[in-house]
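Input.
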Amino acid sequence: MPFSIPAHPEDLLTESYDYDLPEAAIAQVPVHPRDHARLLVIHPHSHHHSYFYDLPHWLRPGDLLVVNNTRVIPARLFARKTSGSQIEILLLEQRSQDTWLALVKPGRRVHVGDTLQLDLGVAAQVLAHDPPTRGRLLRFHWPPDLDFWQLLEQLGELPLPPYITSRNSQPEDYQTIWATQPGSVAAPTAGLHFTPELQTRLEQSGIPMVSITLNIGLGTFRPVEVESIADHVMHREYLQVSPATVEKILKTKAQGGRVIAVGTTSARALESCAHYNQGQLVPWTGHSELFIYPGYRWQVIDGLITNFHLPKSTLLMMISSLVGRQRILALYQEALQHGYRFYSFGDGMLILPDTVQ
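Output.
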């Protein structure tokens, strides 16, 4: 059973995952080069302060890194109603060739049957409300001689998180070096620390990489608004784990190597494969609603590379299930005292395999 480890009652309360974060600790721009970000390395009974470019030192030959190759789309669009009202659209998930689930702002002005007009001959008809996400289902129309994805590149903006208020970063700063599969509305931020040079050094050290695809949507960044985290419902996210990736993971484990997920989305994709297939890691394509929190028994990954996450977030709850909530929160406080940078453009954390509960 995936939830088979007894959890302390406090670990199941949303309030238990709150912490104070000074605004100055929120990274507004990435470090350049990317791999010069700091890295907090977590051992079973100790931890070290390091830098991301030292990652090969902390891993060992035969380990395998699993990365998310999703690409952030320019999902933030601007439209207007026939009345002239300005509407902001955030695409969440493609439902068919011309239909998307989206958040709209201000939502009170957008009703079923409305037509939202964009530039370049593009329009969106509001088909339905979506109560679970508080969003709308939109059907897009565009000139038949044009390509929707090319139009999206011209019309849209990358949807940077709201806590990034600086506009000094470049669009490619919010894409990983292996971002090839468009579909996400947020970046798999742990992967932002990697450079081609670091990837080459890892491979030369006998630490290869394989990829999965998980299109990051509302499920990853939606806040937890219930008292008990067990009552929180995750919004589904599309994922794909290929036969080649599964084969490499199983071969790594058979040879005594360790599987390190680069980012919580990679971890969620792999654990979802096992969760939806009777505990077996098999090639799988589908939508995951898996919510990982203390009490979860990890089935696939051995370790994790991640960033520092928002208070009361599902991501903070996920990593607490790896090493314990109280220890994670204590490490967060130490990281703040040492000047670590938090969130999407911030520093990283390596949870080594022997640490996982």
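The chain has a mean pLDDT of 94.
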